[in-house]
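Try it yourself: sequence plus adenosine-2'-monophosphate, in.
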Amino acid sequence: MRLFIAIQFDPPTIRCLTDVQRQIRAGTLTIQENLHLTLVFLGEVEESRIPAVCRAMERSTVPPFTLRFGGSGRFGEIVWAGIEPTAPLLTLQSALTANLATARFTLESRAYTPHVTLARKCRDAVLPEVPPFTMKARSFSLMKSEQIGGRQVYTELFRTDLC
Ligand code: 2AM
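Structure, out:
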């Protein structure tokens, strides 16, 4: 199954992001249930390997920390809201990458750019203004990604509390 590890957002954060999405007048908006911050994209993983992913997550925890949102940008046809690459976020992301590599998962080597995908298929849309706001990150989750009836559905399989 197709897996990724992400920080899920609390309701006030979802409200801030959906307010920002209202400025985007083109393309397909990410539905609010699907807004998240990806830490690591695993891709296709055998079900039997899920316990190894969970162990790597449990070994990678840092104390709860603040996510700092602000700014926006574009990757091709994707429009995103930015999240500052603060030290605790990068520490968590690199610990996960290292512990998953030790468990023999093959990960992409591209640089980590923390972002929230707000909309797709909007190459020409004007970038939205994302005011600075924050959220306390208290946990991170293993997510399954699947297409059901033409829709992208993300399901949480496992959650690790930050401590
Ligand atoms: P995105 O924010 O650019 O959409 C589930 O697909 C999550 O994993 C999304 O947040 C997606 O990033 C991220 N991701 C990272 N690398 C990916 C890849 N090679 N293919 C699909 N999704 C990827």
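One thing you can check immediately is this: The first helix runs from residue 11 to 21.
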